[in-house]
């Protein structure tokens, strides 16, 4: 175990880029207007405690990340919780912030959270957690349900993650090994972190007794994917740590070459946008998620409150990081339903002591009281995930049970 611990320690630094690449599913443009027919809070509900102010942030109106629907989800969740009487009689008050996919604006959002005395940050999306989390930590503000992208989110004691984070890449490696992949390409953007990303895949491959992958680098500015596709076609399997756009470009070009390579896409990257755009080229592609697929009945209440999000350019309810904000609010309300101290310090203490995290049925129970035993990844407390596959053009769960991704870190004997 010590060998694997040392091997994993250096990988945490690459975590921000690792999941950011997959999370570019949250990219593209979003020109939709603010909805005026969102959920309405019942004015007749009476609250017995002081208001509880929280913040949710995301990026929108940028050239790279536009995930404004996350705020619709947060606002809907707040109304839903308040219409049920709030959290132990306390009305939730929501402050939102556009972090603009910009480290400076992200820092401003975090400082606003401190200045306005929010008791917690809940859900949301950012690729700038390494800037934001230290500000929250210094102020003693917990972040419940961060996206788990940055190294700070994976390690800060103020981070309370609901997802399995970078363990997903090792999990995909383990799945590829279990699927019988003997030759594997690890396809990543040509960035300094590309080698570390492929190492995470190799950890999972090793757990299944498969050889290490070959790294194929994609120039970040390329729009012609034919040469990259040509490099992948001779492999049994290819595990992608890229955004959906280059993934789609590469697999579509490979399809025209008659490729029968099996594909695996980083968690957060495989959405209905990918299936609708990729068609037959993405059939059979595998990913994993901490939550059920977007058409599972477990999301029916969320859809009734927020809407179907069918026009969302990021895949709506099929996007794991869209789902995460709804689950964060439901879990936040459930975990704190009997809490008495709703200061930031009181919430932090309550979360630290929570031995059985109840996310209102969206995940199996897990604990915040015991950290993950790997330096830099210690806030990954939910290591359970499900595999999801494109089948008949739809995203379907593969198998009936959650898989514990910790097993992807144990080398084959």
Structure description:
- Mean pLDDT is 90; it is low at 1-25 and 29-36.
- The protein has helices at 2-9, 15-23, 69-83, 103-115, 129-139, 151-155, 167-178, 194-207, 226-232, 244-256, 272-278, 300-306, 320-335, 344-352, and strands at residues 52-58, 92-98, 120-122, 143-144, 159-160, 184-189, 214-218, 237-240, 262-265, 286-289, 384-391, 394-404.
- Helix 7 crosses helix 8 (194-207) and helix 9 (226-232) packs across helix 10 (244-256).
- Strand 6, helix 8 (194-207) and strand 7 form a beta-alpha-beta unit.
- The protein has a five-stranded parallel sheet with strand order 2-1-3-4-5. A four-stranded parallel sheet has the order 7-6-8-9, sandwiched between helices.
- The chain folds into two domains: 15-165 and 300-372, Response regulator (Rossmann fold, 3-Layer(aba) Sandwich), CATH 3.40.50; 167-293 and 386-409, Response regulator (Rossmann fold, 3-Layer(aba) Sandwich).
- 35% of the residues lie in helices and 15% in strands.
